[in-house]
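@channel anyone free to eyeball this complex?
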Amino acid sequence: MNLKKYLTFTRAGIIEALQFRLSFVVMVAGNLLYLIVVYFLWKAIYASSGTDIVNGMTFTDTLIYLVLATALFNFMEMYTVWEMGRNIQSGKIVLDLLKPMEYRNLLFWSYSGGFVTQFLLTFLPTFIAVSIVTHGAIHLGINILYFIISVVMAIVINYNIDFLVGTVCLYTESIWGINIMKQVVVLLLSGATVPIAFFPDTLKTVVYWLPFQSIYNAPLSILLDAEAEPKAVFTTLGIQLVWCIVMTVLSKAFWKTSLRQITVNGG
Amino acid sequence: MKRKNLSFYFRIYCKILAQDLKSKMSYRADFIISTIGMICTNISGFISFWIMFRNFPSIDGWNYYEILFLYGFSLISLTPVQCFFDNNWSLRQNVYTGDFIKYCFRPINLFFYYQSEVFDVKGLGQLAFGIGTLVYAWIKLGLGFSVLMLLKLIIFLLTASLIMIALQNAAAATCFWIQNSFYVLDLAYRFRDYAKYPVTIFSKAFRFIFTFVMPIAFIAYYPSLVILRPDQIPILSWLSPVIGVLFFWISYKIWMYGATRYSGTGS
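replying in thread with the prediction:
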């Protein structure tokens, strides 16, 4: 694999993102406000519950979990479904298919610049802010390394789910509906809106067997659990790896078979 | 020229609505999928709500059914913005590509014409969901029923809905200045999720912000106090219709001001 041709896309992406500086300011301000709402909401919830620890999570844990889940979401959301849907509707996809690069890779790498800018401008500041506000409640040690590995796998799983759903647009020509369904299902079942620890037991078991919890819950629980046994950490990472492989194979195969029956208007 | 009174605009609206529905129906699959997507969104919102309340019996002195009432109330009052003002989401594309200029040449109110072009049927599902939730909570709380109460409810729902419409108009109108208003719109959209919680959970400063600057507290909290806690209604609740109208008027002015600044793209 010639990495250089891919990195050109990354560079272009960074330059493109830096063009829209004002959007960035608005986004950061917006996130801040959003986080404030989350903070007060859960503070009130914990204050009314009467106990400090609910389902093994303290207020600080829940806060870090939810704040970083939001930060991760902003960082990982690539709007792949939108992009694919639009390209299919406008017919532009035909031009992309002709390019000497697999469409999956093309799409991924053209977004990769966004990862870099999003990471530096939203995720990192949020992370630092949270660890200061919570007085170092995030344990900084080997778990950071595991967290990074876990996030990389989460990106792969998330991208492949997106690509899989995006492929459905080839058949339905519906973007909004498909995208909203995906987003709702992923956010709820991955534990991004409410931590999975709060789920009722049956739902927890179901969710545990689905790929979604590997996207947000897995990296965040690795990060938060400072005294985790290596065995538990490696089980989580192992499950993620399995889902990486399964989702990649699935989305690749689905794309290949779907491509045969593509109908595009003009383009 | 004929004077353009309310009935004139009403007739025009019906005509445009019919055309819009016809064009929607030609994409039947998209229509059905979008509707399912909307239902999914509501169900998932309800599930996360239910999961939270499984763990915490009350928030800040509000019990399950009272919060459920707020939830239903907010769903209903957020329906008009979904149904009638959905075209705000396309505003930035229209402005960016230059298509917006076509609206400027019609001999009717620019704002009216632009918004009337799209009627979002999906919102009706949300309305049904909201009414169901509200009625259920109403019965469980044993609030009783009278025609006066119903009248109050309807008036307060209508005026509460103006708040979200105002927020969305203002957010969409930012694209006349900053081109890409998606982040601003998305931010405003995300805040509606927090409209369903009592504003008392916030600290004083933010209570002020959410009451007067970004008035999400008027979407559900203040107006529903009139029905929920009739013996201690704060003055702000009675003022909420006024505030709804006021904010709508301001947002309309901002929107129109932006539109007059629009100079086209030259194509």
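from a first look: The mean pLDDT of chain B is 84.
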